[in-house]
Amino acid sequence: MEQMTKLHDLKINGSGSAGGGHFKTVSISGSGKIAGDIECESMKIGGSGKVEGSIFAETIKISGSSTLKGKIETKLLNINGSTKLEERISAVELTVNGSAKMMKDVKAGELKVNGSAKISGKLHADRIDVSGMLTAAGDCEAETFRSSGVIHVGGLLSADNIHICLDHYSKVKEIGGETITVSIEKSFNLFRRMFRFLNSDPHLHTEVIEGDTVRLQHTKAKLVRGTDIYIGENCEIGTVEYSGSLDIHPKASVHDSVKV
Q1: Is the pTM of this model over 0.70?
Q2: Which of 12, 47, 161, 180 would be a feasible disulfide site paired with 32, CB 3.0-4.6 Å?
Q3: Mean pLDDT in residue range 5-16
């Protein structure tokens, strides 16, 4: 009977360094560096570590300040610190509670942004849930997209179901989906109400919104196109094109509407 090779752990404390390899667990608690590719069951970075190779792991948890230079493939990536990830990322579950700067494309089953996530490439996920701040330079694609935080998307935001609950200013170049809802946050938190008052009235800026059912509040758009459309209060819309029904709130502004 063939004997299985026992995997060892890799621990770096302080400013040590190591090469790549296949390990059971990997932990960096100082300013250590790993020079090669890593394959492991779990990785933890609690300091200002650097990994120059690719990472293939079951779980990756980051609570310090780190730089990951290679591609990442994992089931769970949890970022609580401040991290720069320079290559593409593939994760079943990706959670950002701290600050993450992702320089290439990101693919995830579920993305949760409670802190700040900046993505320079394209973003694709089954489900995206934002309660912090998400900045995506390219397109953002999902089956379900929900936001109660701040979003800035430089390309197309597309999902079957999109619900953007505004608490601050957000900007998306184009939005497309089946059901699209933009509503205003009705928070009873006194601090959040004061913060909103001191900044500006929260609203969404976009060029084009296109969907089957579209319901909007506090939205500024050049073109809204769909089947059944509701333009709610504090909306400023250039042109509305609809094939079903159109309802416009008295406190909304629509320059032109066309039934097609």
Answers
A1: yes
A2: 12
A3: 85
